[in-house]
Amino acid sequence: MRLTNSSSTIHSAIESDILSSTRQRQSKKDEAIRKKIEQELSRKRSNPTRIRQTKKIAGTVSALRPAQALTLKENILVIEAAQLMAAKRSDCVLVVDDEEHLNGIFTAKDLAYRVVADNLDARSTTVSDIMTRNPMCVTADTCAQDALNLMVSRGFRHLPVCNEEGDIFGLLDITKCIYEALHKMEKAYGSSRKLYDALEGVEREWANSPVQLVQYMETLKDKMSCPDLTSVLTHHEPVQVSLKTQVREVAKLMKEYHTTAVLVMDHNGLAGIFTSKDIVLRVIAAGLAPDSCSVVRVMTPHPDTALPSTSILDALKKMHDGHYLNLPVLDEDKNLVGLIDVLRLTYATLEQINSIEGNQGAKFWHSIAFSENESILSDPLSQAPPSTYPELTSSNSSTEHESTASIVTNTFSFKFNYSNKTHRFRHEINNFAMLLETIQQKTEQPVTVAYLDDENDQVLMTCDSDLMDSVQIAKNAGLDRVKLIVKRHIKQNPMTEQRSIVKQEKRNTITIPHDVILPAAITFLGVVILSVFTISKSK
C-alpha cells in the first residue's frame, strides 16, 4: 500500500514538472517576441514627454489608480498596433485623431473579432476601421462606486478617464480594481469565517429556536459567506477545438459564441487554452498567417485549473498570481465543468461588496485609497515610465476632449431565483429592455419578470416605469436590492392585459441595516455563549 502511494506521488510530481516545463517554454517564446518588437520600437522613440501628476482623492476614480493609457493615431496599421500592444503588455488602446482628441478605443477582443474572424489583413487595415468610436469616459473625481457600477451595467472592462479640462488621464480596468482590493477582501472574509463558524455552533445548540432567530442567523451567514465558482458557472459548455484547428476558424468560433477563450482538447482531455490575447501576441504581432497556423503552435499548454468548490476570492488570487484572464473548471475526476473569465468573477465580487455594504458600497472603495499596499499591476501615473513613438502619443499630453461623458448614479442591485439557482447583479434602473436581456442571458430562455409592490402584490414588469417603480419601492422599504420573480415565458392570448396583479401571501421578512450587521452579530453571539455557559453550569 505504501509503495503504491509513493509511486502515485512520484508520478504526480513528474507530471507537474512536465506541465510546468511546457508552460515555461511558451513563456520564453512570448518574451522573445516582445524583445524583438521592443528592439524595433526603440529605434523609433522620440524625446520623453513630461508625465502629468494627479493627486489621489479617496473614494474617487483617481484613488483606483488608473493605468497609463496606450494611445495611437487612427491611421496606424493593425499589425503595428498589435506589436505595440504586445510590447507594452496592453489589452486596450485609446485612439486619437490628428488634433489629439480621443476618437476611439479597441481591445484584443476587437482584433480577434473584427480582423482575424472577419478575414481582414492586419498589414493593410488601419485601426480606424476596427475601433469603437466615441467611447464613454469618466472624470478623475467621479465617485469610484459610480464608475464601477457603470462598467458593470454596460459590460465594460475598460473605461477611459479624463480630467476636468478633458485631457486623457488614464485608463480604468475593472479587473485591476478588484485585484487592488484582494488583500482587503481576504482579511474581511477571514474575520467573517471565524464568526460564521461560531454561528454554526450556536445554531446547533439552539436547534429549536424561533423562526425569526433562525432567519436572522441565516441572513448573517449569507452576508458573510464567499461564493464558490458554482455560483457563476453557466449552462453553456466552453467552446472546444482540436489541436489542428486553424487560428482563423478559432477566431470565428470566438465571435460566434461571444467569448475570448477556447479550450483545446485531445484524446486525453484538456490540452491547452487559446485566447484573444494570444491572437494579438503570438499570431498578429509575430507575423503568422491565421489561415495556415494551427492552434497547437500558439496555445498555452496544460493551463491551470480549479475545482467547482473553489471560492471566487481564491480563483481571483490564482488568476492574479498566474497573470491570466481565463480559468478552466474541472471536477475531481478531471472532467470539464466550465470556463470562468476574470470579468465574470469581478462582477460577482462587486455584487458581494455591494451586498455587504448596501447602497453605501462607496465606503469600501473610499478605504482603498488608504491601503498601505501599492499596486503591483497598475502603478500610479506619476510613476509611469515615459515612452513615446512617432505613431504613439503620450496619454498625458495636453489634449482637449470635446465630449467627456458624465456619470449619473442610476444603478441598483437585483436578485432572482431560477431553476434552483440564485442570480445577483447590478443594473441600470431606467432600461427595462436591457434588464430583460441580461436576465435572459442568465436563464438562457425567454422569461417574464415581475416584482412585489408595497402591498405585496405581484406586478408584471413590462416597461421602464415598472422597473423604476420596483426600485423606488425597495428603497422606501429600506432594502438594498429588488427581488424579482422570474418565470419561463408562455405565449398568452393577445387580449390578455399586459399588466396582471396576482395576490400573494405576505412573507415574514426581516430587514437588517447593513451598518449594524457585524456589531449586532458579535453582541448576539456573546449573549448566546454567555446564556449557554450559564445553563450548562446550573445543570
Structure description:
This is CBS-domain-containing protein. InterPro entries: CBS_dom, CBS_dom_sf, CBS_domain-containing, PB1-like, PB1_dom. Residues 64-122, 131-187, 233-292, 299-356 form the CBS domain. The chain crosses the membrane at residues 516-535. Keywords: CBS domain, Membrane, Repeat, Transmembrane, Transmembrane helix. Mean pLDDT is 75; it is low at 46-52, 369-409 and 495-512. A hairpin with a 2-residue loop joins strand 15 and strand 16 (421-428). Helix 5 (174-205) packs antiparallel against helix 6 (211-224), helix 5 packs antiparallel against helix 9 and helix 5 runs parallel beside helix 14. This protein has 539 residues and is of the alpha+beta class. The protein has 14 helices and 21 strands. The strands form 6 sheets. A 5-stranded mixed sheet has the order 4-3-2-1-14. The protein has a 4-stranded mixed sheet with strand order 8-9-10-11. The protein is globular, with a radius of gyration of 26 Å.
Weakly predicted, low-confidence segments? 46-52, 369-409, 495-512
Morphology: globular
Total beta strands? 21
The largest sheet, given as strand count, sense and whether it forms a barrel, is: 5 strands, mixed
Q: Strand share of the residues?
A: 15-25%
Number of helical regions:
14
**Helical content (DSSP H or I, runs of 4+):** 40-55%
Rg from alpha-carbon coordinates: 26 Å
User: Overall mean pLDDT score?
Assistant: 75
Q: Roughly how many Å apart are the termini?
A: 50 Å
Structural class: alpha+beta
